[in-house]
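#help-structures
NK: newbie question, is this the right format to request a structure? protein is Dynein intermediate chain 2, axonemal
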Amino acid sequence: MVGTEQGLVVSCNRKAKTAAEKIVCTYDGHHGPIYALQRNPFFPKNFLTVGDWTARIWSEDIKESSIMWTKIIMTFARWCCPQVSDKALYSLRVQDNGQLVACGSQNGEATLLEICSGLSTLQKNEKSLAAA
């Protein structure tokens, strides 16, 4: 995938045999250059773009428009992927209100992470919108 200066995201197939098969599809949603594009490491069909002062989340399954976007000015964004341990994580437990996450690693270390209220507080219609 690549973002263009015209605000398009172009999805390509590197293994295509013909020129017509090389461009799989395009996503049109920004009104200027796309400055960042990154796939979600946990849900690879979803990706994030930044351009025209907004961040947008897309799904490969929905070609018509992005599934979420910001209303605020954005110049940088990325998926939240903090490294918790050098060892494999074997357990994860989220507090009932979603503000704390405990992680247990392969070597017995426990790490407690605090989640910001913007991510831990359920927004109006969030569950139904995400499911849709």
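mod (FA): yep, format's fine, and the tokens are attached above. The chain has a mean pLDDT of 85.
NK: thank you!
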